[in-house]
Amino acid sequence: MWICHALRCNPRELEIVYSGSSKLHMAQSIFTCASLEYLGFQLVSDEGLEFVIPKIINLPRLRSLWVGRVALGEEFIHTFFSACPILEVLDLLECDIGFSDIYSQKLQSLIIERCYVKKMLCISTPNLDYLEICFRKETVAKGVVLQEMGSLYEADFSFELDIANIPREFVLLSKISNVTSLRLGGSGVVLKALLEKEVPNCSTFHNLTYLYIDGLCIIDDFDLVARFFCLLPNLEDLVLRNAAKKIATGEGRGDLARGTLKSKCLKTVEIQCPEGSNVRQLERVLLASIEDPYRVRIILSSY
Fold first, then answer.
1. Which of 126, 203, 267, 277 is spaced 20 to 30 Å from 90 by Cα?
2. Are 240 and 213 in contact (CB under 8 A)?
3. Distance CA 232, CA 238 (A)
4. Which residue stretches of the chain are H helix?
């Protein structure tokens, strides 16, 4: 078998694409290869197959694990973290997640992209630097709760959901107040629901210098936006995408109060909207809300 031959060469990286139609069994020798630093495996069929945990896993040098389109049970996460003592990067793509917690003192980067989360998922990774979570439309999850996130530097949350698919429990923003960069994207209805729930429980984001928001109508939801911006005293760069409705929908409700954007560090506001959006009104609303608008550069772009 070619995999066994490859493993005799003591590879540092190995990626496997599987196209079978039964439970996903992989050679035991893969999971005892002491030289591996990166391991990736992905299913290419439409049906998510269950990954069968090998009897023995010993990957002392593994730093990065990538898994795509596989059903992962409760044993998966605990087995890999115990057998991979220096695992730093975990990427899960379109997987069925059947475990209820991710706990690691070593993990530095975690990506959960368009996965189906079957249970309430608690994430406790005190040394994590980067977190990315993208929820797909088909996801009907009980929720995701972040716990220890004291070292988090950058977070990216995307919600490809409609209002009917919002999980019952989300604890995200209130646990990441140390981040310097934050990206929020997806359905405006879902973003609004997330902010309404979490902003009252959030601490001040003293370290946040970059904020990207895609999909939330700033003009219609200015009260909510104002409450969130009050928690960002050191914001330098703000990017708003799809933040203004089409002109035909009306002129919005009004302006944010002067000083809503309290950051004395604010340097750039970039507005990215499709052709036909009421960009100029959004620009006026933002200028009225900036404490010192003459020192802020506003960039308008359409697509």
1. 203
2. yes
3. 11
4. 2-7, 74-83, 188-198, 222-229, 279-289
**Cα distance between residue 122 and residue 240, in whole Å:** 30
pTM above 0.85, yes or no: yes
For 146, phi then psi, to 5°, come to: -90, 145
Task: Supply φ then ψ for residue 153, to 5 degrees.
Answer: -105, -40
Q: pLDDT of 23-45, one tens digit each? A: 656 778 888 999 999 999 887 76
C-alpha to C-alpha distance for 78 and 196, rounded to whole angstroms: 34
How does residue 49 score in pLDDT terms, banded at 50, 70 and 90? low
The band of 21, judged by pLDDT with boundaries at 50, 70 and 90, is low
When comparing pLDDT for 5 and 260, which is higher? 5
φ, ψ (nearest 5 deg) of residue 226: -60, -45
SS3 content of the chain, % helix, strand, coil (to 5): 20, 30, 45
Tokens of residue 204, six digits = 């001040």
pLDDT in tens, 197-239: 899 999 999 999 999 999 887 777 777 887 898 899 999 999 9
The tally of CA atoms less than 13 A away on the side-chain side of residue 102 is 29
Angle between helices 222-229 and 188-198 (to 10 degrees): 50
31: amino acid identity, one letter: F
How many whole angstroms separate alpha carbon 130 and alpha carbon 111? Answer: 8
